[in-house]
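Collaborator request, handled under Task 6.
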Amino acid sequence: MTTTATEGPSQDRPAVGPRGRPGPGSGAGVHREHPAPGAALTVLPGVLRGALAWTDAQRAHFTLPDDVLEPRTQVNATLKPLGELAQLGSTIRRTTAPGTPEHELAGELVAYAWEQVAEGELLLELLRAEPFAAYPYEIYAAFAGYGLRHEGFEALARTLTATRAWAHTEQHANRQLGLVNSERRVGVVTHTDAGAVLSRTWLGGLSEPWMFEGPSGYALTHTVFHLTDWGRMPDRVPARIDGYLRTWLPAWADGCLESGQWDLTGELLAVAASLPGPAPEPLLDAVWPVLADVQHASGCVPETGPPVRDTASPDPYPFIDCYHSTLVTAFAAALSLRSLRSPGQTDGSAPGRERRTA
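Structure tokens returned to the collaborator:
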């Protein structure tokens, strides 16, 4: 099992429209040129509550099978959803106000995910079985960043992450940035310099904005998530990248809305809410009402395509076709609420050491 467990939607379904480029399609409409001020704040609390309620009701679908350690088990259908539940749930917990239902429910979902990995013991078994794979470490880092640790896992990981093979694993730049962030979260010396890796990403190179399409879009959003530790540290975004994103996010979001790419829309909204300084209110006010309209009455959001309007059905889409986009919607909603209500607020966590290993 070597598939990355915490990156983007399922790879066996189209993530974008024809030829992989967001464009005119089955969307519910594009955002208004002059949105009403405060439109995002009007819908965001309900969107967040609905998405979390649906996720809670679907806990059984996140349960790991008994054969999860078998080589034939599909990571994308088992550990990937659980890892994303841990990652996005922990961010929502940190971003929402203590005592609120959203804060408490997010904490319960993270605790459930930790229980599913036997409080880290299952991840240790995965690391033993696949010492060459990064995904057990990345899933563990989601818990470690939240304060849930396993001594045995970290003891073995310290040995493995000190190897030449770990430092020279060949992967795309945004994936390597994710590994650097995982090392920060666990609290070890990073295997390379994050700034050098950032410069090799699609976003770090300030690529021509008209070259934006599905794969580059997901690479861009995850570059920001890894750079900012999933929105917790907006000040890590360099000024040149901040300006580039503020200029082009509205156009990219428009294209995603037109083509019904709801999952990528949610990720772009999360990026917008992870920028340092003032929230990009016109963008949030324009896009959030559209995504709120796409959200089903049960709280789920489809990854792509025309939204189901039948409010009688509690499960309008297969779980695998909406769990990621629903989690992303909740994640983006929590970050957007923080950005609009408390500009510049972070959780105050200190970054990991940024030295390269020998």
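The cover message to the collaborator said: "The two ends are 29 Å apart (CA to CA). Residues 1-6, 10-32, 348-358 have pLDDT under 50 and may be disordered. Please let us know whether this matches your experimental observations."
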